[in-house]
């Protein structure tokens, strides 16, 4: 009895749902808070927050809506669809005859492959962790010094050869020093030293 | 007046280091465009903080050259390894790669360079000729009109992109909402700052842009399998015959340039769309020519002339109304504002010489693209084989350093990291990041003009309806937002009826 | 720099200040000042007016002292972030910041835990006068006509920047001190946009800096200087006191640009910096730079004069606008 419920929960709580819940809580808070501002300061946040809250709610609840409505909410509705979506596929087929091993990656910036089988999410998670670490260490000891550490760990995790790792770390150090001298802020100090 | 500003524009362009920045921008752009997975958005986002040290015109010319160079650079990988360096060159693979397989790689590369240059040059000359008319329109716009056109830009994006309208509008509204953090222009009360100094100026939208376009893209890229190509690159064929091919197809070239320009001028529809539409048009007017898709040079011309034409087109809404049409122009707008160049009347009346100098730089840039493409680029093809795993840490480092360098505020670094992750999930679930970014960028402009309009009208919303231009804009926004709702309602009744 | 700070901290505050006093005091202590790099913290953005002035002037002062100077823009919170940074740096005379008199407003509203009179002030180098501009199509020819047009309700709005900015305080003082009854205040983001709006007829009148008005003289009517001492950019321009008003709003109508150092910077070093500033302002390099760029540079007094202006601002502004509205 518990298992099916758990499974349906697990199917429902995707990263998209989490993202929408995050957006919903931020926008709800901002909506409530906006009523404490003067009317001039409050009108625009109220408008933007109301639209966001409404949109997030509709998207979160779309699973409970009737099928046709659901489809209309999520479906592509671009005015250029017939070209970039449709023709793209048609042309890809022509191309496949040429070289079956080379599937042309013709997705554009607006169409992301939803096919998770093609994506290595462990690596993505690792990178997110590394990024957070970089921000934290940078805050503690200064971004210039955190940079070689970040790249070094990255190179270690992603199995760079020693030579490649050294090259990439040096490029990083050069970039860090260059930014430090070009931009008018001090990047060599952190809160610790 | 116009003549004076034209001369002063040329003076800006030829004095000082401007030409140098133009060349650097083009080279950087071409390299970034060539590497699969990196595109103009990333190049512009990372370069933006570094332009702080330059004067306004130099900074914008550097950024536009990166944009324009990346548009051309994308075709190199598309032709040689069948992987477009940028989305804007996706249609180039369709005929460019078959040409390379037939031993005509050099010919395809030079067709791409020539078509890019000619398509880009025609559209930019048209833009220069249009500028006086644009000025007339811009000067008719006041506070109510600017508020409405900012909303219209965001609304339009959500119908132009191939995603769900509800998702697009939600993303856009969330962007608008986040832009309200900090001190507003029209009233002195700080909002959502939790009494923390670092939040008084709100989120720096440049940091948000860097996060989404640099970090977000890197998170996406690292998860993609098999991005390295083992293609044997052979550079055979003749570059001269490539130039001849373009000259012998003037109508395709110029038409494609204008298609690109027209589509670029519509907010939300950048080069990733225009190259396909232009290609489709070439196929259509070719009367079902069977050769398309198997190495027809006109296919390469159509795609490449269009994506460079898009650059000129996309500058129209960006410079005149401050409504960028794409990620790249959103960053460009960030650059304009960072250097105190406000789009609208100031760029078209007082500083029209700066505007002209930027347009001229773009024109010169297109000629340089031709020269680079014909003589140097063929030696840079090995860039296409760089393993993206090496590029990812460098891009992250450069993006974070640049963000911190904006004002030495740690909030900017966390903004970059947070919005990198957030942007990645938005991309993953098909939420329009362009709509979100435009929300963040246009939020302050929209709010300032909304509040000011209401101050002028004593709080009455009639100010958005009682003059012809605001009325038309209001009706357009209503049409854009209501039409999908109507289609939802229709499909609902059809669904239950059947 | 960090190492130096660590030494002072580890020896304890009392001994530290003794040590510092020992270093700086005495007859020959001043001979080697300045001997290190100057560090200018600029609380406003790169390329802005204050940034440009600071870079030009301190480059010259550093050149004269045969030392170098580093510039750092720490922007945010209307200047308060950078000013706070200056507040907590070593008072050794090497770190300085620019200060503009209207910036006492964000210090009052944000209450960062210190006040402007705690700082040491090096001296003032220029002042900028605000002017009233009108839409040329309205046929308003002098300050008196504008005042009666507002009185009669023929015109209602006046344009300035966000609440708390000098032109907002000025607009409020026009109403409360001079009795000019405008109806609605419309906020724009800078003098440029105000001029565009006035020229396009969106608002009848606005308050902008004299330099911005000079750049757009053909589009707008420049009517009156809002300082009784007149405008250096428009020497022939009438001033508001010409129309029978008392000199009530000068403290806001002209804003003073100066430099300051952290609290407790020793007197000798402030004196040296003040002399260097005077010399630099008179130098050919800076004077010809000022001529070329249309800026005006003139030594306008040392610590006493600067403090007098800042304190008057600090006192009068809360009387004119309600700081709670901004907070």
Automatic annotation (TrEMBL), chain B:
- Is Transmembrane helix given among the entry's keywords? yes
Domain DUF112, first and last residues per copy: 20-438
Q: Which protein, by its recorded name, is this?
A: DUF112 domain-containing protein
- Keyword Membrane part of the UniProt annotation: yes
> What InterPro entries has UniProt attached to this entry?
DUF112_TM
- The residue ranges crossing the membrane are 12-39, 59-81, 108-131, 137-161, 168-185, 197-215, 319-338, 358-378, 390-411, 431-450, 471-493
Pfam families, per the entry = TctA
Q: Which UniProt keywords apply?
A: Membrane, Transmembrane, Transmembrane helix
